[in-house]
Integration host factor (Baekduia soli), 107 residues
Amino acid sequence: MTAATTIAPAPQHLRALARANEVRLARAELKRQVADGEISAAHVVLECPWEAASMTVSDLLTSQRRWGTTRCRKLLASIPMSENKTIGSMTERQRTALSNLLRDPTA
């Protein structure tokens, strides 16, 4: 062995695990910020940060204080949207409708 030997890159499965862990930690931080009121769920829906793109709508809504599955389902039933829809796959019309409902639930 010489000093010039190169280190092989990490195997693909280890890179995938590292990326999954990075996404999990970023999502947990985003959920914490939503729960603490630092950022609103309506803002996350409109802006769609990278950590929220593959998150389901129900995950985001239930991360708010005093929001459970029943409240989430009732809100999403008022606009025809599945609770399993990812935030990144929402259309612009769906984004604005959901963010308007989150800002003013009486509308």
Remarks:
- The radius of gyration is 19 Å.
